[in-house]
Amino acid sequence: MARSKTHKQLHFTEYAVVSERGVYVPSRNSETMGRDLTGAEQSVGTAQAVGRIALGDGLTAMRALPDASFDAIYLDPPFRTGKPKRGDRGLFTDQWPSMDAYLNWLSPFVAQAHRLLVPAGWFWLHLDWHSVHYAKVLTDGIFGARHFRNEIVWHYTGRRTPADRRFNQKHDTLLLYARGDKSRLSPLAEAWSREDYLHMKRQQLHHDPDGREWIWGHAGRGRSKAYRIYVDEQVSRGRAVDSVWDIPIINTSAEERTGYPTQKPVALLERVCRASVPPGGLIGDFMAGSGTTGVAACRTGRRFYLVDRLPEAVQIAEERLAEAGCPVRADEGP
Ligand SMILES: C[S@@+](CC[C@H](N)C(=O)[O-])C[C@H]1O[C@@H](n2cnc3c(N)ncnc32)[C@H](O)[C@@H]1O
Asked: Of 17, 74, 243, 268, which cross-links 124 as Cys (Cβ 3.0–4.6 Å)?
């Protein structure tokens, strides 16, 4: 079993935990690993993001971990596009002989995610039109249809071309499942302008003697009381995030682009982390690619556990985390 810590800045990062036959072996016995990463006894504050990266098969890694270890699990599998996914740095296969074969491959990942989540945890499955509808049925069967919470539409901006066979495909879908009835999201808000707020309300604007702007609010149907809603207060509170997320895709000139194929934006994963992982909590990504989940977790003060089976992916993830200056946990390992 090889183990290495290649970046000084990444003392907490242990990877290349792969046997000579390419089989993933956890670097600690699973009991210790679970306690270490998730135990309440660890005083991991919001500023002390810590994480680990493993090179190996994600499913084997998941099977080696103890039950109820993670606050959230995000999986961004190959979408079954039928074509290899190639970038400047990295290439992964995305071909299955049939939908059944794909679902048979995906199903144990989802089952393991279910086992690995804490009772109030969250599961995110990121797909697109190729397979998401079939995967929804599969995931309903494992998590329970009543635990399905959202179909998040990640709408990415970018070039559009006139098309007459179908509309331009400009979104991915993230299926969001609660692990149990006690799962609660942290509400998210996005900044918006006074103009956007007033445009949405389409109401007459009034002014206090000191010039402060307000509109009438109504206490509700059948109630006569009206009250003042101050515009500045509403604008500073932000707008609740809904199920359509407008976030630019990583295009060829994006600053955060690593060259890894199908890299997702950090802004997307920051939302995932903020909404479904408490500060200091743990998110797992067992098809981690270029490590976007780790960067987002680190930037938002969450811990992470990343696995990918491709050495290029792990290498890029490690470089990104080093660049992001993730705080180091004083942990000398097992
Ligand atoms: C869509 S990409 C993930 C991209 C990632 N979210 C990012 O932002 O860079 C899918 C990843 O799944 C990985 N993968 C596929 N099968 C895997 C397996 N059995 N174990 C671990 N990783 C796997 C691929 O190597 C690829 O990096």
From this structure: 74
